[in-house]
Write a structure and sequence with these properties.
By secondary structure, this protein is mostly helical. It has helices spanning about 1-15, 20-25, 30-35, 40-45, 55-65, 70-80. Helix content is about 60%, strand content about 0%. It is elongated and about 60 Å long. It starts with a helix and ends in a 13-residue tail after the last helix.
Length: about 100
């Protein structure tokens, strides 16, 4: 586990982590315990960063000893890439 966390720390620091899936995949059996969530929840959230909570991001930064802004930037970049913009024009009043 320590090796996986050290590896993630280095990869975050060098900008090598491009997807939050990489966090979940780094040590699949131990990572849920370190994050304080179940395996299925970890897979669901880290494979779809829009579902990540602030707590998930803060805990990921804590356990990897990474600046939270770096972890947040990776999560946000991936979430923006996967996000489908909602069209709410039908809900707005017409003039």
């Amino acid at each position: 586990m320590q090796e996986a966390l050290r590896n993630l720390k280095s990869r975050f620091a060098t900008g090598d982590v491009k997807s939050m899936k990489e966090v979940a995949g780094s040590y699949a059996t131990g990572m849920p315990f370190a994050l304080g969530i179940g395996y299925e929840t970890m897979i669901k959230r880290f494979h779809n960063p829009e579902l990540l909570t602030l707590g998930d991001i803060l805990t990921t930064a804590d356990i990897t000893e990474t600046d939270v802004e770096i972890v947040l930037a990776v999560a946000m970049a991936e979430a923006r890439k996967n996000h489908v913009k909602r069209d709410i024009s039908a809900l707005l009043p017409t003039e």
